[in-house]
Amino acid sequence: MAVDRRAAAAIIMTAIAMTERRAELDGAASATLVLLCLLWGLQQVAIKVAMTGFSPVLQGGLRSLGALALLWAWAALRGMRLFERDGTLGLGLLAGTLFAGEFLLIYTGLSYTTVSRSILFLYTAPFLVSVGAHLLLPGERMRGVQAAGLACAFVGVAVAFADGLRLPTNREMVGDLMVLAAAVLWAATTLVIKGSKLVRASSTKVLFYQLAVSGAVMPVASLLMGEAGVTAPGPLALACLAFQIVVVAFASYLAWFWLVARYPAARLSAFTFLTPLFGVLSGALLLGERVSASLAAAMLLVCAGIWLVNRRARAAGA
């Protein structure tokens, strides 16, 4: 009887989890995604400013450790058990390792290649997520119009950063490959979460795994890489680090992993093409950086791509 009760409970919990998943994005989810992309765009400025007081990889490690402490407090206030045995430990450590590797490659790659080139290679990730979901996740097959929408959004990003592109030097090619590998890890993290028991775990626990592993790995990597570490952090650098900890790594990632568990991967990934465009706008407004005249066209292409990816299919199928 005990086995029967456990089996029945598992069936009920699976049914509940399935009913929470949506085939399409609703208005609230879309608005949340735009806000998240805006925050991630602002993060690009925050990272640049915080580099005046903290080395890049150490900065990433401090961000994860600070957000981990906040997440632990959040879980305690809500009475959530982060260490309860639910069969997700191995998968969680895998997701955390992929997450840590992604940011290590991004920060290291940026020391070899330009920001413009790194953004283009990093934003191959939505394609990888969509193809992986199409091949590996039942119910997330990509339609032709969605593939066209992703391509349209990627072209928009390429248009925005076209001024900074040219044939790479050997050094830049090394950085390009690092950032491309980071894109693969970003996609792999999303697919591991979507295609495993982690999709039924709380978003708090999923994020906990990733912050814990990256918080442990990145400061050690910073030492091994010979980074300067904490140099002379002023109030502005500290404020930018605090923004990354509280707003980005804690609040925005918690919201993102909640969305990943409930909505189709391809539809979510299309919105992330807004992030580099918001980053350009943030750099122009806050740092006085030059904005390309083609930014408006880029924004239109990205928005058109998002619309195509999230367009409702006709009854006969699109």
UniProtKB/TrEMBL annotation:
It is a multi-pass membrane protein. Keywords: Membrane, Transmembrane, Transmembrane helix. The chain crosses the membrane at residues 60-77, 89-107, 119-137, 144-162, 174-194, 206-224, 236-261, 268-287, 293-310. It is found in: Membrane. InterPro entries: AA-Vitamin_Transporters, EamA_dom, EmrE-like. SUPFAM superfamilies: Multidrug resistance efflux transporter EmrE. The keyword Membrane applies. Pfam families: EamA (PF00892). Residues 33-160, 174-310 form the EamA domain. Its main location: membrane. Belongs to the EamA transporter family. This is DMT family transporter.
